[in-house]
Amino acid sequence: VVSSAAASEDHGVASFTHLDGTGRARMVDVMGKPKTRRIAVARATVVLSVDLSELSPRWQGLAEIIEAARYTGILAGKQTAKLIPLCHPIAVDSVIVEVRPSSYRFAVEAIAQIVERTGVEMEALTACAITALSLVSAFQDADPWASVEELRLWHKSGGRSGVWNHDDEGAGATSLVVPATTSESP
Amino acid sequence: VVSSAAASEDHGVASFTHLDGTGRARMVDVMGKPKTRRIAVARATVVLSVDLSELSPRWQGLAEIIEAARYTGILAGKQTAKLIPLCHPIAVDSVIVEVRPSSYRFAVEAIAQIVERTGVEMEALTACAITALSLVSAFQDADPWASVEELRLWHKSGGRSGVWNHDDEGAGATSLVVPATTSESP
Amino acid sequence: VVSSAAASEDHGVASFTHLDGTGRARMVDVMGKPKTRRIAVARATVVLSVDLSELSPRWQGLAEIIEAARYTGILAGKQTAKLIPLCHPIAVDSVIVEVRPSSYRFAVEAIAQIVERTGVEMEALTACAITALSLVSAFQDADPWASVEELRLWHKSGGRSGVWNHDDEGAGATSLVVPATTSESP
Amino acid sequence: VVSSAAASEDHGVASFTHLDGTGRARMVDVMGKPKTRRIAVARATVVLSVDLSELSPRWQGLAEIIEAARYTGILAGKQTAKLIPLCHPIAVDSVIVEVRPSSYRFAVEAIAQIVERTGVEMEALTACAITALSLVSAFQDADPWASVEELRLWHKSGGRSGVWNHDDEGAGATSLVVPATTSESP
Amino acid sequence: VVSSAAASEDHGVASFTHLDGTGRARMVDVMGKPKTRRIAVARATVVLSVDLSELSPRWQGLAEIIEAARYTGILAGKQTAKLIPLCHPIAVDSVIVEVRPSSYRFAVEAIAQIVERTGVEMEALTACAITALSLVSAFQDADPWASVEELRLWHKSGGRSGVWNHDDEGAGATSLVVPATTSESP
Amino acid sequence: VVSSAAASEDHGVASFTHLDGTGRARMVDVMGKPKTRRIAVARATVVLSVDLSELSPRWQGLAEIIEAARYTGILAGKQTAKLIPLCHPIAVDSVIVEVRPSSYRFAVEAIAQIVERTGVEMEALTACAITALSLVSAFQDADPWASVEELRLWHKSGGRSGVWNHDDEGAGATSLVVPATTSESP
After folding, report:
1. Cβ separation of A67 and E67 shorter than 8 Å?
2. Hey, is the C-beta of C180 within 8 angstroms of any chain E C-beta?
3. Which of B40, C116, C145, E140 could form a disulfide with B124 if both were Cys (CB 3.0 to 4.6 A apart)?
4. pLDDT tens digit string along F109-146?
């Protein structure tokens, strides 16, 4: 049940901070929260019937498709509050998107950062989702069966809840270049 | 290689209609295509650690969350061309989104319809993706581990390629109300 | 009751075309409707505590405020489908906005026209509303009590329901320049 | 009065802070103002020929229409600066919208809050206006005569001018749930 | 000349089709015009203090910057009606953008195509302008003096006025790949 | 020069702050930068075959066209981050646009101001570019040969690099009213 899932709170519903006392959805009021540095990392996998590793590395098309998808995701991430009703409009400090092709799949990772009173989880997820859809779009003729899998938050830090990592050991193998870059970027 | 993956076409790269002769991405020119009725259905699953079936059916919050997510998806579907660079801006005739909660998951389905020279696959996928993210957003505090799975095209008809269905027998079990409604809607 | 209000229809709820058979809101499917020329006129009044007729006619500020408000309304009218979830995205053929200042009030009128399968009522209403709010915005310091009154549809023609006029004889007195222009414009 | 004020350079035009010294409209420069907590409440009434109180309280359609309108208003409130030219783009901390149906009308109330150098009056008014239009849209077939009345600012606090309330004693009777919630939210 | 034309009501003002009989700006009513295939080509030059030809052809950064700018321009071209108040919202059939680097400059070309009652000149110009600004943005640190020059329409065909070409013989030398591609694309 | 800088990994690429260590474009991370007051001024010239100085100064149309263009530019300037992928979304404190007609040309100037960790150069350039295009749009019928020239940054101050002015003595002659106004505005 919800109350057990949110065990540290009294009654389950209270853990849905998007609901007010009468059960109506609302934007969470963040005015009382301190501004802290917050980072969110989201990931997704695009699964294709096309073996990307056999495409010649010098074939320009793949790099172009990936680049298009990255910019698409960055622009979408910055517009999250216009897409998701209860998200706060925030001036995100950076959105980084990485795409790594391998056999039959793309690994997508988006990192959003901000110094604010509210998190950037939805910004990272939105950037990741639209990057993935842009890749699906590019392969629509070659593979109408392409799917997006495991689109989810991977890491978040900052704010009340501190550092949080999704517990998936196998993930290290598909780790992208960005996290290392990120840790040194400020 | 791509050419084998797209076996029914002559040369692999040609099957990426978003690429021109020099490998650069572009919007596909659709001016020569006839206007036909086109329908696209996309689906996704939101997987949670919360058992939705145990939430009281009279608890208003869940219905509100679902309704918010549906409208979010409809608005996003209508803005697909602003999010995906190589999509044509089209005046979609309808976008329908359905959400069905069950144990630990939401089934999401989006249907886009148009009479145009270009398809509405990306509109259905975008509506589906943003609906799913809106649901993830609502459960962010209760379950930061929520993920979106199997976001993909499920059915498309109209245009050069006729009717096409994703071959997944198990899908029938989670079939939503909408398809039946749709078939009678015109 | 609704059914009596919508007396010409069989059952009340059916008259809410934005609802499907299960009571869920949806975009109305317009694919089966013919494309016809459709015109919608909306009006609103902005009521101020400032006597606009005493402002010198040569004072440039008022003309600038009105012009700003008109363009604001036109741009908003073209974006109606992004603001109102169940409106169809349409390529409106023209949006015209007029503003006439008098003592203590602005009369605002917006006309939207299209050749389409769906009407442009919401486009006219949205253009009218945002024009009015832009005027309110300009007088925010001089009159925080400004209000928008009688924002409503005034005329619509085209489509299944033919010509329709709001029954208000007094309206002729505040009739704006636009309608005459409009009737000769095609 | 404004007309006399407008006759002299000293007071009159200065009250239109959206005009510069030459009478041209501009965004007010707020860089010198302190960041303070600001709250704005706007209200509007949607007047219908349909008696909403006779609709069965269990009829799901009305709740859905209201919910759709609320989200529509929240999304629009966050996009105010894109709609109203001279509004500052601000990262509003919260937008809350309430809708209460009664006989032949909806009472709509929107509350916007921020800690900033500029107010959120237009955000509240825009959220309120688009919520009202979304309700009008839903009843377009049942009642094309629906109108929006008394769309105006109701309360604002914060900034140079302190607390301000619209002087209308009768308003208490139609007071919505939100204000009480709001006063305890930070 | 326009000044003499503007002196009489007969010819001058009529040439400004964005003005109505009273000199007020408006969207041109296009409902009476036939739908024809229309093509518009716009060009611009970005002038830098950086010799692009000396950058190693294998340096990936330049290709990435160009690709980003191209997609940026395509997305902006599709949103022209939201940026330019009196432009009609149109469902452009294709927007193609090309960028060619040479010594100290980028040549930018945008081609917009549609089958509609109104032209796509502003769509091509907007795509071209935003592509150019995206390039300026990428070189902001290396060259804050970068400028955009000769942003203008280069070719248009379709509609009442037939084929039209800007009379500039020297232009052939900087002709981009796109026109040839375009002529065969339908 | 950049070409030599680009030859080594140490200095060259670092000057393109939009590229990360691997040559991929990214949003610059600004979280470590202090918030300072930043001002950017951009200018452009619209060149026409129409002698604007011979148009009667009382002819209302020109003032309307200019006013429309100014608002268009202000709205676009506030949406820069949605148009240019690697720009940070910022809550700009003011965008001012001025347009001065003379013989055969319009001088356009846009000033953007903010107290932030990142500059507003692109906001000023975007406001300037779209203002210029809006003017081109208004004269499209009278002069399809209109062009935008010398669109570039003219002044920036604030941030790490202090005050910077474009070195062009002749510019004083076409200096607009705004800079003086600006210096006294905070």
Report:
1. yes
2. no
3. B40
4. 999 998 888 889 999 999 999 999 999 999 988 888 89
The 3-state DSSP class for residue E96 equals: strand
Query: Which residue from F minimizes the CA distance to A71?
Result: F85
Of D78, D115, D177, the CB nearest to A82: D78
**pLDDT reported for residue C36:** 85
Cα separation of C136 and C3, whole Å?
38
What is the model's pTM?
A: 0.82
CA distance D11 to E74: 48
The mean pLDDT of B26-45, rounded to a whole number, is 84
Lowest mean pLDDT across C69-83, D71-85, D166-180, F147-161: D166-180
Concatenated DSSP letters of E30-43: -TTSPPEEEEEEEE
Query: What does the alpha-carbon distance between residue B96 and residue C26 come to, in Å, rounded to a whole number?
Result: 6
Residue corresponding to tokens 């809350």: D96
The span from the CA of B112 to the CA of B124, in Å, is 5
Could you tell me which residues come within 8 angstroms of residue C18 by beta carbon, excluding any fewer than 6 positions away? C25, C26, C27, C28, C86, D65, D137, D138, D140, D141
Q: What is the pLDDT of residue C24?
A: 57
| Shortest Cα–Cα distance, D52 to chain F (Å) | 39
Contact C54, D5 (CB under 8 A): no
How far apart CA B145 and CA B159 sit, in angstroms, is: 39
Give the confidence band of C96 by pLDDT, cuts at 50, 70, 90. very high
**pLDDT band at residue D176 under the 50/70/90 scheme:** very low
Write down the residue that tokens 């007396």 correspond to. C7
> How far is E161 from chain F, CA to nearest CA, in Å?
10
What is residue D78's three-state secondary structure? Answer: coil
Predicted local distance difference test score (pLDDT) of residue D150:
97
Contact of A143 with chain F, judged by CB distance below 8 Å, is answered with no
The reported pLDDT for the residue numbered E98 is: 95
Chain A nearest CA to B52, separation (Å): 8
With helix as H, strand as E and coil as C, how does F88-135 read? CCCCCCEEEEEEEEECCEEEEEEEEEEEECCCCHHHHHHHHHHHHHHH
* Whether the Cβ atoms of residue C69 and residue C131 lie closer than 8 Å to each other: yes
Cα separation, F22 vs F27, whole angstroms? 14
- H or E element at residue E126: helix E121-138
Predicted local distance difference test score (pLDDT) of residue B186: 26
CA separation for the pair C135, D151 (Å, rounded): 13
Answer for the pair A164, B165: CB distance below 8 angstroms, yes or no: no
Check residue F43 and report its DSSP letter.
Answer: E
Are the C-beta atoms of B88 and B17 separated by less than 8 Å? Answer: no
Q: Please give the pLDDT value at position A17.
A: 56
CA–chain centroid gap for C107, Å, is 12
Q: Is B61 exposed, middle or buried (0-12, 13-18, 19+ CB in 10 A)?
A: buried
pLDDT band at A8 (very low <50, low <70, confident <90, very high): very low
Contact check, Cβ <8 Å, A91/F91:
yes
* Residue A179: its H or E element: helix A178-184
Tell me phi and psi for residue D141, to 5 degrees.
-75, -45
**Residue A139 backbone dihedrals phi, psi, to 5 degrees:** -105, 15
Lowest-pLDDT range, B26-35, D170-179, E109-118, E147-156? D170-179
| Chain B (26-65) residues lying within 8 Å, Cβ to Cβ, of chain C | 37
Q: Based on C-alpha coordinates, what's the Rg of chain E?
A: 18
Q: Please report the pLDDT score of residue A12 as a whole number.
A: 37
A140: helix, coil or strand?
A: coil
Q: Average of pLDDT values for E29-53?
A: 88
Q: Does B88 touch chain C (CB under 8 A)?
A: no
pLDDT of residue F17: 57
Q: How far apart are CA D107 and CA D151, in angstroms?
A: 10
Question: Is residue D82 within 8 angstroms of chain B, CB to CB?
Answer: no
CA distance A24 to chain F (A): 29
